Amino acid sequence: MRLFISCVFVFVVHFLSGCGKSEPQPVSVSGVVNLNGAPLENGFIYFKTIETGALERLDIKAGEFNGKALPGLRRVEIISNAPKKVVIDGATVEVPENIIQSSFNTESKLTAEVLSNGLNSFKFEVKKK
């Protein structure tokens, strides 16, 4: 009898573990980013979910990006760094500086609706600082 109860218990636990809500799976996304009307040479794009903190970073090369992102309404931030010379403790060093206006990254209002089924191709136009 104990063996029967143990088997039933294992079956029920195994069955119930498959009944929970599954996490969303990343889907393919792609697109283009133009800087002042021309393809952004290099940089990266973030797809963010503000409520959960979910974040995907994709590289931008020759104005194009592709990769995977979670479905849903995502905040988009676009960054491209160029070297900037600064003096620190008397020494000149190069540090990265974002060349894109903050309204397209730290203060971004850009969004993308990433679909779990369907084409996820996006086009973004950004401006230089």
Molecular structure report:
Strand 3 (42-48) and strand 4 form a beta hairpin. The mean pLDDT is 89. The termini are far apart. The protein has a single domain, classed as Immunoglobulin-like (Sandwich), CATH 2.60.40.10. The chain has one helix at residues 2-17, and strands at residues 27-35, 38-39, 42-48, 55-61, 64-69, 72-79, 81-88, 91-98, 111-114, 121-126. Strands 1, 2, 5 and 10 form a four-stranded mixed beta sheet that branches. A four-stranded antiparallel beta sheet has the order 4-3-6-9, with no helix packed on it. Strands 7-8 form a two-stranded antiparallel sheet. The radius of gyration is 22 Å and the shape is elongated. The chain is mainly beta.
Brief descriptors of the model:
single chain; 129 residues; mainly beta; Immunoglobulin-like; four-stranded mixed β-sheet; 1 helix; 12% helix
Task: Please specify the SSE layout and strand pairing.
Elements: H1 2-17, E1 27-35, E2 38-39, E3 42-48, E4 55-61, E5 64-69, E6 72-79, E7 81-88, E8 91-98, E9 111-114, E10 121-126
Parallel strand pairs: 1-10
Antiparallel strand pairs: 1-2, 1-5, 3-4, 3-6, 6-9, 7-8
Strand % is over 45%
Q: Count the DSSP helices.
A: 1
Largest sheet: 4 strands, mixed
Number of strands: 10
Question: CA-to-CA gap between the ends?
Answer: 75 Å
What's the CATH superfamily, by name? Answer: Immunoglobulins
- One letter per element, helices H and strands E, the order comes to HEEEEEEEEEE
Any idea what the CATH architecture is? Answer: Sandwich
Which stretches are poorly predicted, pLDDT < 50 over at least 5 residues?
Answer: none
CATH fold call: Immunoglobulin-like
Helix content: 10-25%
CATH secondary-structure class: Mainly Beta
Class from secondary-structure proportions: mainly beta
Rg of Cα set:
22 Å
Overall tally of structural domains? 1
Mean pLDDT: 89
